[in-house]
Amino acid sequence: MICYRLFLNPFRNWANSAVLQYGMFLKKGLNVSVYKYTVVIPQREDAIEQGTVVAFSETEAKRKLRQFELVNPKLKEIRGISGLIKRFTADIK
User: Fold this and answer.
1) Backbone dihedral region for residue 81 (phi beyond 0: left; psi -120 to 50: alpha; all else: beta)
2) Does position 19 have pLDDT exceeding 50, yes or no?
3) What is the mean pLDDT of residues 56-82?
């Protein structure tokens, strides 16, 4: 029993940490949403800008757009295969 604790316990800790790191990758990597945004530019009210933004939530997407001085956006979440493809070709990541 002592031999088991000395030699297999570090492996068990390594395996647990690998599983936890994989879970963190899933949380950060695959649970990202893609949003299509439409914004009326404040300086020119007749100009409309459209594009896609990758974010964890709708509030983070609005925060990312605010950094580019795009205020009051209309957001729509893109799902499915088109969302997966647009994740790689998004305008704002």
Assistant:
1) alpha
2) no
3) 92
Q: Which two tokens stand for residue 26?
A: 């899933």
pLDDT at 2 over 70: no
Domain boundaries, the chain: 1-30, 32-88
Helical H segments across 1-93, by residue range: 2-25, 58-67, 80-88
**17 Ramachandran zone, left/alpha/beta (phi>0; psi -120 to 50):** alpha
Q: For residue 41, how many other CB atoms are within 10 A of its CB?
A: 13
Do 91 and 65 touch, CB atoms closer than 8 A? no
Residue 59: C-alpha distances to residues 7, 36, 38, 41, 52 (Å): 48, 14, 15, 20, 14
Q: What pTM does this model have?
A: 0.64
